[in-house]
Amino acid sequence: MRRALRLLAQKPPPRLALIHAMQPSIASSIPAFQQLWPEAELVHLMDDSLARDVGRTGLDESMSKRFQALGRYAHDAAGCDGILFTCSAFGSAIEAVQRE
Predict the structure, then answer these.
(1) Cα 54–59–65 angle (5° rounding)?
(2) Which of 33, 53, 62, 88 is least enclosed, having the fewest CB within 10 Å?
(3) What is the side-by-side strand order in the sheet with 41-46?
(4) Within its chain, how far is the Cα of 54 from the centroid?
(5) Whole-angstrom Cα distance, residue 19 to residue 75?
(6) Where are the beta strands (DSSP E) in the chain?
């Protein structure tokens, strides 16, 4: 039992990708995590063209593919355990990432 507890204590902190579409969301997310989940290791990914482009194209297939690419990068390349999109305006594109 003690060995199991030691192994649990040695478990690395969760690595979370926060995917941002706007610069201000990075600054506002940092204190929230410091207060509520300080042990989490954050990886901030940002594509500030998402908001502009969705205004032109809507949430079409190309936007969903961009979000899926960001999600794959967060998981596969950055090794994140979880993903948080910091803007809810991209609902169907975010849902496509969840399905993957």
Answers:
(1) 100
(2) 88
(3) 41-46, 15-20, 82-85
(4) 19
(5) 12
(6) 15-20, 41-46, 82-85
**Does residue 88 register a pLDDT over 60?**
yes
Rounded to whole angstroms, the Cα distance separating 47 from 19 reads 8
What would the pLDDT profile of 30-65 be if each residue is shown by its tens digit? 999 999 999 999 999 999 999 999 999 999 999 999
In the block, residue with structure tokens 């901030």? 44
> Is the backbone of residue 35 left (phi > 0), alpha (psi -120 to 50) or beta?
alpha
Residue 72, CA distances (Å) to 2, 40, 42, 77 in order:
37, 20, 16, 7
State the Cα torsion 50-53-54-60 to the nearest 10°: -110
pTM of the complete model? 0.84
Separation of first and last alpha carbons in the chain: 37
